Task: structure prediction
Amino acid sequence: MILCHDPSYGGAFFGCPHCGNLKFVPFSCKSRFCPSCGNVYNQKRAFRMSCKLVSCIHRHCVFTIPEELRIFFLKDHSLLNCLFHSVRDVVLRMFFKMNKSELFTPGFICVLHTFGRDLKWNPHIHALISEGGAGNIIPWRPNPHFDYDFLRLAFRKVLLDQLSLKLGPPFKKLKNQIYKDHPEGFYVRAKPNLCSPDITIKYISRYLGRPVIATSRMDAYDGDSVTFHYQRHEDHKTITECIPAIDFIKRLILHIPDKHFKMVRYYGIYAKHHKQEKNLRKCLSKQKQHYLSKLLDWRNLILLTFGYDPLRCPECGTSMLVLEVYHKKTALFERYRKVMGYG
Result:
């Protein structure tokens, strides 16, 4: 992240075919923690999500776990898969109960957040669920009613059963205690939020793709300490914290996912081709998907964000073309560094 756009790590050489003007553009770091690269990654991820959405009302649900279970997921990140699997099984079971012969299948996207507003370890699942499902014969049936009590109790049972299989007999005592301490199940927020198709797409871009902490929440850095603020859930009070920079970094790196771990997963009709898929109307048409995909390349993103074309020749206004691509430690790049005086 520190080496983002560092010329010594390679880049692309552009030239103007009209006047011969040259320009070198260094490579970015592609890190999700980078404010610049992470924002681009989130925009592209939100676009891919939007392409899958059926044109219907969606509901945002949050599946949380009690504090006494969080330590197990911190020690063993592979257990985070149990969170995804539990949410998947519970949501599918709720829709299957509507009609056992039709087996209505919704479409839903699950996103894992391991952080709370105070940046501490707090794994939970955000799910965007269609308020309806595709059946074996019936193309689509709306389902505006979500069984709140069923979601809480079923999520508790399925998750604890999966953890029992992973952790073995030593977990049995804590499992029994959790059943006593949480008789109404684990907290699941599933209230209607009127997410129409247009609002849903904007919602995905703004919320589900957000980083651990936005730069707007970081108030000050004096070289030793970092000051940031957040709004507390319980009373909506703004809390300001000032902690050593090393502790701040420790809180951030705690949420870096393991290599190849999927933080976003698709289920139901969004996971694979469904036989009713051709009968369902998508939020984005094929034509709109093709048009929007062109706006997500490097050149157009710079143009839309900052208002200038990075490949427009400043001398004559002609579009510049790629001449060479240099990678670190290649012979051509070493020669280019000597000529341009980099490193």
User: Anything to note?
Assistant: The first strand starts at residue 10 and ends at 15. The chain has a mean pLDDT of 87.
